[in-house]
Amino acid sequence: MSEYTHNGWLFAIEEDIGDIYRHWQPQSEYYAGGDALATALYLGWQASDIVLLERRWQGGSRRINIYHFELSRGDDTMAMPVLGNPYVERLIAEQGLRVAHLSKNKPTLPVKTIRPRVAAPASQTKEAWT
Fold this sequence. Notes:
- The protein is α+β, with helices and mostly antiparallel strands.
- Helices cover 15% and strands 35% of the residues.
- The chain has helices spanning 34-42, 86-95; strands at residues 2-6, 9-13, 46-47, 50-59, 62-73, 76-83, 98-101.
- Strands 3, 4, 5, 6 and 7 form a 5-stranded mixed β-sheet that branches.
């Protein structure tokens, strides 16, 4: 296992960084992967201390996490939305980055209020079959 230290970021990866180099371009992909984030950090981009978390509900109870990183290098800045996965979440935890929730909780379906039935004595009810 190889370890790379660059600008304070420690990456423990099995392949050489050249083998997993992954460029991300916002005009061609909406979201980056953890490998594109690792490549950007290796190339000298610095992440801000706060990462925004957007939770998207796809249907039913399927949720995806999108982490919005603000990266800077010299005078350049870029926003990189990264799909959540265990690698990205571990990177956030190990670096002590703060996560601010951008999304509201899962939308709830409207609840129909049902008035409770008042029980009537059997002698006062009409049965359909009589």
